[in-house]
Design a protein that fits this description.
alpha/beta; 6-stranded antiparallel β-sheet; 13 helices
Amino acid sequence: MTEPLLVQKYGGTSLATAARIRRAARRVAGARATGQRLVVVVSAMGETTDRLLRLATQIHRQPPARELDALLATGEAVTAPLLALALETEGVPAVSLTGLQAGIRTGPHHRRARIVDVAPRRIVAELEAGRVVVVAGFQGVVADTLDTTTLGRGGSDTTAVALAAALQAVRCEIYTDVRGVYTADPRVEPRARLLREIGYEEMLELAAVGAAVMHPRAVEIGAAHNVPIWVRSSFHPRDRGTLICREPKLETRQKVRGIAHQAAVAKVTVVRVPDRPGIAAAIFTPLAEAGVNVDTIVQNVSHEGLTDVSFTVSLSDIDAVEALLPAVVARVGAVGFVADRNIAKVSIVGTGVLGTPGVAARMFQALADAGINIEMIATSEIRITATIPAGAVETAVRALHQAYRLERL
């Protein structure tokens, strides 16, 4: 009978020092001793990625994306062999692999590539040889050029879940510096409560609107392949953490399950755009081709054949957007554009959000009572997002958490 396969992922904080790497190795060795085969995905140590990024910008004001990816991927490429060495000292045979060696193939977009295929032949061979396989997360390669790509912030989560899906692992364990998924960021709302289980759909929405504990693409892959994802703390081994799964056992039928926020957001308004077919495509296609993710699009009512189109982007993309828009504005015949970098978003998420009368009204009233003006509103089946001034985001999170009594779940 084949031993069950487990995928574990350790974040940068969990691997920030030699002592923490040794502690992670002991945990892996303990799991191996129970008769499980293991693939371990690692992030770069501590603040390595930020340090490399700062170093690159000291050399070049706007580093080419290809070279930046080649540089940033070295962080994980250092951590993986260090953990493999630590496992060897624990008496556990181990081998480290880069994204290329692990068979992780991505699309061509640098800095935010998407995994398109996993060919884990080398991983399978090493597992059959009795080794623990340590894979450098956050990275892959373009199939035809073998250029190194990175998957964006939190991309090691995506690596781990994608490997768990490809290898048909029994589950994927994400070890991080928090105890699991909370009803809100506990650094902002101290009364936030740990969720024992949550469904893929709700977790995907929370991750997409700012819950940094999981990468949205990782949750998306988990849902598509029904991979149970267990988010746990690497510093509190006895904590159960949060299970992300297909059919969670709800402790209550609470309509709102969590509050998420994003602080680093910018709003862009293209002013006095001719209101005719094809204009929206002309505005957003160049942004998409540049790899810019656009969210919360609002078009005002047309007046005298002209309208304003507003949308939000990550603050990290605003420089690229401002570089692209002058040509776009000229092409569509708009008057100009305005960018506001002092924006944030706050969201409520839950399966009953839009199907229950009064849920949206309570959100808007809570923000009004806190003196917070809403600039834009976006909704999905289970989410309502409000765009607000950046300085009000923490007040908004606490006000909404109290309004829905999430501390009482």
